[in-house]
Every structure is written in C-alpha cells, then in structure tokens.
Design goal:
96% helix, rod-shaped, mainly alpha
Length: 74
C-alpha cells in the first residue's frame, strides 16, 4: 500500500466520521427544538396553575373570613 492509498483511506474515514457528526447534529437539533417547545408548554401550564392557585387561595380566604364573621355574630 503506498502513501496515496493510505491518504485515501484516511480521507474516507474522515468523511465517514464527518457524516456521522452531521447526522448527530441534525438529530440533536430536532431534539432540542422538541424540548424547547415542551419547556415552553410546561412554563405556560405552570403560569396558569399558579394563577388558578392564587384565585383559589383568595376564594378560600374570603370564605374563611365570611365564616369567622358568621361565627362572631352568633
């Protein structure tokens, strides 16, 4: 095997490795996009749940206040 054959094999090996890396990058890019979308959905859901929790807390506190007022009247 001469120098040209060795260089050709090394070049082919390098090209194959680059192709693998490109495939990995493409796969990770898609996965990253999916994860970011999921994170945004979860963040929105969390915000909505926090709002609903605050509304429920306010309503319960109001009920407690009214119950205490009724109790004090008796």
């Amino acid at each position: 095997m001469d120098k040209n054959d060795t260089n050709e094999l090394e070049l082919s090996s390098l090209e194959a490795r680059i192709d693998e890396l490109i495939t990995t990058i493409e796969s990770l890019t898609v996965e990253n996009t999916v994860l970011k979308t999921h994170q945004n959905t979860l963040t929105l859901e969390r915000t909505e749940l926090i709002s609903k929790t605050e509304q429920a807390r306010t309503r319960v506190e109001g009920m407690i206040t009214r119950l205490k007022a009724l109790e004090n009247r008796s």
